[in-house]
Amino acid sequence: MGEVLLQGFGQAAAPSSLLATAIGSVLGIVVGMIPGMTISTGIIIVLPLTFVLDPSVSIALLLGLYVGGMLGGSFAAIMLNIPGTPSAAATAIDGHPMVARGEAGRALGVAVLASFIGGLFSALCLFLIAPRLADIALGFRAPDLFSLVLLGLTVICSFAAKSWIKGLLSALIGLAIVSIGQDPVMGTARFTFGSADLLSGINFLTALIGLFAIPQLIDNLGRAGPDAHMSVAPTSFGRLIPTWADIRRIRVPVAIGSVVGTFLGILPGAGGPIAAFLSYDYARKASKEPETFGHGAVEGVAAPESANNAVTGGALVPMMTLGIPGDPVTAILVGALLIHGLAPGPLLFIERPDFAYGVIFSFFWANIFNLIIALAGLRMLVKLIAMPKTILMPAIAILCVVGAYSLRNSVFDIYVMLFFGLLGLGMRWLEMPVVPLLLALVLGRQLEENLRVALTGSQGDISVFFTSPFSVLFLSLAAVSVVWSIVSSRRSAKGAR
Amino acid sequence: MTGRVAMIARNTVFGFLLTLLAPLALAQFPERPIELVIPFDAGGGADIEGRLLAEGMSRVLGVPVVSVNKPGAGGAVAYTYVKNARPDGYTVSWNSTSLLTMSNLGNVDFEYDALDHVGRVEFQPMVFAVPANARWDDLASFAAECAAAPNTLKIANSGTGSATHLGALSLMSALGCEVVHLPAGTRRRNATVLSGEADAMLAPLTGAINLVKARRFRLLATLSSERNAVIPDVPTATELGYDAVFELFRGLSVPNGTPEAVKIVLADAMTQAAGSEAFMKLARQVGFTVDTMPAAAFDALMSAEDAKVKAIMVGAGLMSSGTVGR
Question: I want to staple B253 with a disulfide (CB 3.0 to 4.6 A). Which of A191, A243, B93, B310 is the partner?
Answer without folding.
Answer: B93
